[in-house]
Write a structure and sequence with these properties.
By secondary structure, this protein is α+β, with helices and mostly antiparallel strands. The protein is built from 14 helices and 4 strands. The relative contact order is 0.13.
């Protein structure tokens, strides 16, 4: 006899695209959790000698001084010169300069989770003083790969925290509204309608102007998360209300009430589990919406601001024609947003189908 969890997992594994998306999402969140270890450098580290340096791709084979082909993970160096017309530094690959690369190398000191001192990085040059820019450098000479890795922690965690708060508010308030009805239902529905009627962009512009510039990035992050959560729970609450209103007079609910079961127990143990599949689908679709909201607001300058590092903040570097024409690698955070959102949507489809009690 298989348990309900075993049945859900068996059906979920049949959805190959959802299973692959689960692996992708797991890797993205692991990168965010261990970003200090994964990133070759800190996000604030810069070197003006490498401004707008193009990405250095990893290579496996090279030719030594004796003309023999050798195997070894490395990146090639580069030469630089000034453009006589624009006086801008121009970089060109130099195949004769070999920079050995290895895994679990010593590099810049950091604190894992801001607690554990360490200096071991997942990947980097054997000699930490040599240049290593797998995704290129920005206009200040900062490593784009390191900044994208650090930005993963904020951009992905803001979705989880925001959805958790929205889920609690939506299920509790929507359940109370649909189960009890009357003036309680009228009051909660009027609050929901008021929140949904507020225009989002002017609200964000006003909130961005109200946030003091002296606040730390952590405080701004918490405020942005709370505001996104307080706005995003209304649709789930209305869906939960509709389900509760259709089920509150069902025989199993009446039997539980006559048996002396408390109101909150009926809601939590008898009504909510009946549409867990719908809640799972709503949550997995709400997480990418939260990520897109943070990225869009930070991109427009009314969300997180530097020195905070998120995908939206990093995309601010790509707001000019020069970046699009000469440094397309600055759009890497946008590619990660697309991959994350698609993977979460596929994962939500698979979980919804697997947890549906009617299939």
């Amino acid at each position: 006899m298989a348990t309900q969890r075993q049945l859900i997992w068996t059906k979920f594994t049949e959805h190959k695209l959802a299973l692959a998306s689960l692996v992708v999402i797991g890797l993205i969140y692991l990168v965010g959790i261990f970003c200090e270890f994964v990133a070759p450098r800190s996000p604030e580290h810069y070197d003006s000698a490498y401004t707008m340096l193009a990405p250095q791709p990893l290579k496996l084979w090279y030719t030594d001084d004796a003309g023999q082909t050798q195997f070894g993970l490395h990146v090639t160096g580069f030469s630089s010169q000034r453009d006589p017309n624009t006086l801008r530094r121009v970089f060109a690959p130099d195949e004769s300069v070999i920079i050995p690369v290895s895994f679990f190398v010593q590099g810049q000191d950091y604190k894992l989770f801001n607690l554990i001192p360490a200096n071991i990085h997942l990947i980097g040059p054997v000699d930490p003083s040599q240049p290593f820019y797998l995704l290129g450098a920005d206009r200040l000479g900062r490593d784009v790969l390191s900044r994208v890795v650090y930005g993963t922690r904020i951009s992905t965690s803001i979705g989880l925290i925001g959805v958790a708060i929205s889920l609690v508010l939506g299920v509790i308030l929507g359940g109370i509204s649909g189960y009890f009805g009357g003036w309680v239902d009228n009051f909660i529905q009027r609050v929901i309608e008021f929140i949904m009627s507020v225009p989002t962009i002017p609200l964000w512009m006003g909130l961005a102007a109200a946030i003091p510039v002296t606040w730390s990035p952590i405080m701004v992050y918490l405020i942005i998360t709370m505001i996104i959560s307080l706005i995003g729970w209304t649709s789930l609450a209305r869906e939960v209300r509709g389900r509760f209103m259709s089920w509150r007079n069902e025989p199993f609910v009446i039997a539980a009430r006559l048996d002396g079961t408390s109101q909150m127990t009926i809601i939590g143990r008898h009504l909510v589990p009946g549409f867990v599949s719908h809640i799972i689908a709503s949550v997995t679709l709400a997480i990418p919406a939260m990520i897109i909201a943070e990225t869009s607001l930070s991109f427009l300058g009314i969300g997180l601001r530097p020195p905070a590092v998120s995908w939206g903040v990093l995309l601010q570097e790509a707001q000019n024609i020069r970046s699009l024409a000469e440094a397309p690698w600055l759009l890497t955070p946008g590619v990660l947003v697309i991959i994350t959102v698609l993977a979460l949507n596929f994962l939500g489809d698979g979980l919804r189908d697997a947890a549906d009690p009617y299939t």
